[in-house]
Amino acid sequence: MAQEDINSLLVANARAGRFVARLKGGDPFVFGRGAEEVLACLRAGVAVTVVPGVSSVAAVPAAAGIPLTHRGIAQEFHVAAGHVAPDDERSSVNWRALASSPATLVLLMATEHLGAVADALIRYGRDPRTPVSVIADGTLPSQRTISTRLDTVARDVAHAAIGPPAVVVVGEVVTVSEQITELCGGLAAAAPWGTFVPADHYGNGTASSRDSKADREEGPRTGTAPAPGAAAND
Amino acid sequence: MAQEDINSLLVANARAGRFVARLKGGDPFVFGRGAEEVLACLRAGVAVTVVPGVSSVAAVPAAAGIPLTHRGIAQEFHVAAGHVAPDDERSSVNWRALASSPATLVLLMATEHLGAVADALIRYGRDPRTPVSVIADGTLPSQRTISTRLDTVARDVAHAAIGPPAVVVVGEVVTVSEQITELCGGLAAAAPWGTFVPADHYGNGTASSRDSKADREEGPRTGTAPAPGAAAND
To answer: What is d(CA B160, CA B135) in angstroms, rounded to the nearest whole number?
Structure first.
C-alpha cells in the first residue's frame, strides 16, 4: 500500500470517531515514515500520540552480543540504510565520510547492495580487515550470525544465502561479540534472544548455547535489561 | 559505584543462586556498558540474557516531534556522546567526518561542551545555520525543547539554563518538528509524551498543547506505535 493511501486510511478512520492505532515494526521515527503520518494527521485536524519502540538498530546487534558502543572501542555509532547502492543517484549517504569515521556502522536493508557498500567503504579508506557481523532474522528462533571482514563480507553472505531481514554491523565492537562467543564455547552468538551461556556453566566446560532453552533456564542467570520506566519487552 | 564494583555485585549475587535483574535507563548496549557486564558474568560462569530497551537516542527526539530519518531529508543518522570536548585527548569522535555528513546528528551528554562541539562542526564545514533542537528532560512532564541553529545553540542553551539530561539533534529533520509545532498552534513540540494536537482540533483554531491532558484525550486520535511483537511501552 502506498504511503499516501496509508495516510488517508488513518485520517478517514480517525474522522469517523475511531481510536486508530498504527503499529510499526521497530521505532516509528527510525526509517518508519512516522513523521509523515503525524504530519498528514495534523493537517487533517487529527491529534496524534507517538509511542517510541525498540529499534532493530540496537536490539538485533544486542541479540548477537554486539554493543554499539564499548569503552575503549567506540564512543559513537552511525546508522544508514543500504537499500540503494552508493553510486545510485537516490543515495544521499556520504560513504566517504563514513569510511573515515571510527564509529560503529549499522546498516539496515543492506544485504542486496552489500558488495557495493563494502567496496565503497574500502575505496574511501576503511581498513579491508575491519570486523563485520551480519545478523539475519535477528531475535527470531531462526537468527543466524556471520562474523567476517569488510573485504569478504559480500562473498560470505552470498555463500550463506543470507537475505533480508538482516542487520550489518561494521567495526571493532564485533570483536566484543567474538569474546562473548568464545566464552560460550563458540556457539553463543548464534543464540537468539540475546541469551549467552558460558561454556563452564555446568562445570564441565562442554555446555553451549545449543542446550535446550529449558536447560539454559536452570542455574544462576543475570539479566541486563532497561529500567521499567524506560522500556519493556513484549 | 565503579563499574568493576557493579560487575562484582552481579556475579556475587548470581553465584549465591539469585536471579539478578540489572536495570538500565534506555538500552543496555547503547552507552550502557552492558557488554562489559555480560563479559564479567560469562568469565565468572554466569549466564546472561540481554533485553533490549527503548533508547533516548530515538525516543526523546520523537517526544519532540523530530524523526531521525525522513524521506527527502535524511537517510542516515549518527549518534555520539559529547561528554568530552572535541579537543580532549579522551575523545575518539571524528568531528571532521561528522561535519561533512548529511546525516542527522544525535548528541547525548553534550550540554556541558555544546559550544566547543558546535564550534568544531562549523570549523570543519557544517553550515552555521544548520537547525538544532535541544530537548531537556525528554518524555518527562518537565520536558523543554529549544529549536535554534548551530551557531547560536550554545548561547541559547545557556540562556534557557538547560542542563543534563538533554538530547541534542543537529540537522534538517528539526524542520519537521517545526512543521508539527506550527500545525499545533506553536506549542506542540513542548508537549511531553509525543502527543501532538492540531490547532484546529476543536474547530476554533485556538486549541494547543497547553490544554489539559484530559481535554486532549477527547476526540479522534491516532497513535503511531511499534507493533506489539517488536516493542512496547510501560
So the answer is: 12
Question: Of A28, A59, A224, which is closest to B24 when you measure between CB atoms?
Answer: A224
C-alpha cell recorded at residue B35:
557488554
Angle at A48 between CA B188 and CA A43, to 5 degrees: 75
* Cα–Cα distance for residue pair B76/B138, rounded to 1 Å: 22
- Secondary structure of residue A193 in the 3-state scheme: helix
Write down the pLDDT at residue A32.
93
Three-state DSSP class for residue A125: coil
Nearest-CA distance from B188 to chain A in Å? 10
- Read off the C-alpha cell for A137: 532474522
Q: In this structure, what C-alpha cell is assigned to residue B74? A: 535524511
Whole-angstrom distance, CA of residue A55 vs CA of residue A141: 18
For an interface test with B, give the residue of A24, A29, A36 to mutate (most B CBs within 10 A): A29
Which three-class secondary structure state does DSSP give residue A177? helix
Cβ neighbours around A89 below 10 Å, total: 6
Looking at residues B51-68, what average pLDDT do you find?
A: 95
Query: What b-and-e string marks burial along A132-148, b requiring 16 or more CB atoms within 10 Å of the CB?
Result: bbbbbbbbeeebbbbbb
CB of B51 within 8 Å of a chain A CB? The answer is: yes
Contacts of B121 (CB under 8 A, 6+ apart): B95, B98, B99, B105, B130, B150, B170
**pLDDT digits over A71-90, tens only?**
999 999 999 988 888 888 88
Q: Does pLDDT of B133 surpass 90?
A: yes
For B151-172, give the DSSP string. TTHHHHHHHTT--SSEEEEEST
Q: How far is A110 from chain B (nearest CA, A)?
A: 13
The residues in A 200-229 lying below 8 A from B, measured between CB atoms, are 200-201, 203, 216, 219-229
Q: Which residues lie across from B225 on neighbouring strands?
A: A23
**For chain B, how many residues are written?**
234
- For the record, the C-alpha cell of B92 comes out as 575518539
Q: Determine the residue among B213, B224, B233 to mutate to test chain A binding: the one whose Cβ has the most chain A Cβ atoms within 10 Å.
A: B224
The interface predicted TM-score of the complex, written ipTM, equals 0.86
Phi, psi angles (nearest 5°) of residue A122: -70, -45
pLDDT at A73: 94
| Count of pairs with CB atoms under 8 A, one residue in A, one in B | 409
B19 and A220: CB-CB below 8 Å? yes
